[in-house]
Amino acid sequence: MVENSLSAIAPSPEICAQLTEDSKTLALILDEMGKVIVGQEAMNRALLSGVITGGHILLEGLPGLAKTLAVRTLARVLDAKFQRIQFTPDLLPSDLIGTMVYHEATSDFTPKKGPIFANLVLADEINRAPAKVQSALLEAMAEKQVTLGDQSYKLAEPFLVLATQNPIEQEGTYHLPEAQLDRFMFKLKIGYPNRNEERIILERMANQSSPETFKVFSTQGILEIRDRVEKIYVDDRIKNYVLRLVLSTRKQEFISGEEADAKSLEKLRSLIHIGASPRATLFLIRAARVNALFEQRSFVTPDDVKAIALDILRHRIILNFDAEARGFSTDDVIYQLLETVNVP
User: How many CB atoms sit inside 10 A of residue 245's CB?
Assistant: First the structure.
C-alpha cells in the first residue's frame, strides 16, 4: 500500500535515472566483493552502507569469519586508503592519531600523523584498548578530526571506523562506554557460513593465493552517491513509523493504541532498562534510504526500515536484569518491537 502511494511522489525522472545507475554500481561493488567474501551478503551490504552514509560499524564475531578480509577487500574495490590497527592494552593514543615531533635544527614541532588518517580504519579487537585510546578514537569518530598539540586536523572523506570484537573471549578487555557504542551506526553479528558456503570457501582459499579483486569504483564516486542518497524520498508516514519504533523503547513516552498494540508494548517495555537514543532515529532513516537504493527504489518503504532495524537498534537498547534472567536477548526484544508497532 505504501509503495504504491509513494511511487507517485518519487523524485524527478533525472534523479531517478541517476539513482538507478547508482544501484547498478552498488551491485557491481558487491559482486566484486563476492569474489572473495562468501556467504556474508548482509555484512557486505552493511559495510557498503556505512561507507555511503559515513556511519561507523561494530563487527562482532568469532575469529576466522572474514571480518578483516571483508574490510580490506572493500578498500581495494573502492581504491580507498586502508589501515588496520591492532588494539592492545598497552596501545597509546599517539599510536593511533600520531604525535608532534621536535626538530632540534629548527626548534619546531611538526605533526607525524598516525594510521587514523585513512579512509577505512579497522580497529581490531577494539575493546582491548584503555580509556585514553578510546577517547582519542571517539573524537575521530564524532568530529571527523584529530587533535595533535594545539592543532586540529581534518580526516579524509569518506572516513569510516570498522571495529571488531570477540564475543566470547573477555579476559583482558575493557567495557566500551555507551557513548562510544552509540556512535556506531551498525552493530553486526557475524555467524558461521553454511555447509555449501564453506565448501566454496574451501575451493577458493585452499591454495596460498586468494581470488583477485579489482578497483571498480572510487571514493569520490562514493561521496557523489552519498549526496544523491539524501534525495531518496521519505514520506511523513515513514518518519512517524521510525519515531514510533524508537519511542516505543522508552518507558516515559506515550504511545497510543493506534500506533502500537498497548498490551504487547507494556510487556515489551517491562524488559527494557534503557531505550534507544535520538541518534537511532537519524540512523534508521539514513540506512533505510541506502536499503531502498540497493532495491532500486527512489523512495523508502516500511520494509526498508525493518531490514536495517536490528543492526541499528541492538547496541542502543539495554535490557534489565529481569529480561536477562528470563533468557531474552536484545535481538528478541527488537523482533517483538517490529511486530508490536503498527506499520503504515
Answer: 26
Q: Is 172 left (phi over 0), alpha (psi -120 to 50) or beta?
A: left
Strands 272-274 and 184-190: unpaired
Which of 289, 328, 334 is closest to 309 using CA atoms?
334
Domains annotated on the chain, with CATH: 38-228 (3.40.50.300), 232-340 (1.10.8.80)
Asked if pLDDT for residue 72 goes beyond 50, the answer is yes
DSSP string covering 78-147, please? HT--EEEEE--TT--HHHHHEEEEEETTTTEEEEEE-TTSSSEEEEETGGGS-HHHHHHHHHHHHHSEEE
In this prediction the pTM is: 0.89
145-197 per-position pLDDT tens digit: 998 888 889 999 999 999 998 777 666 677 787 888 899 999 999 888 889 98
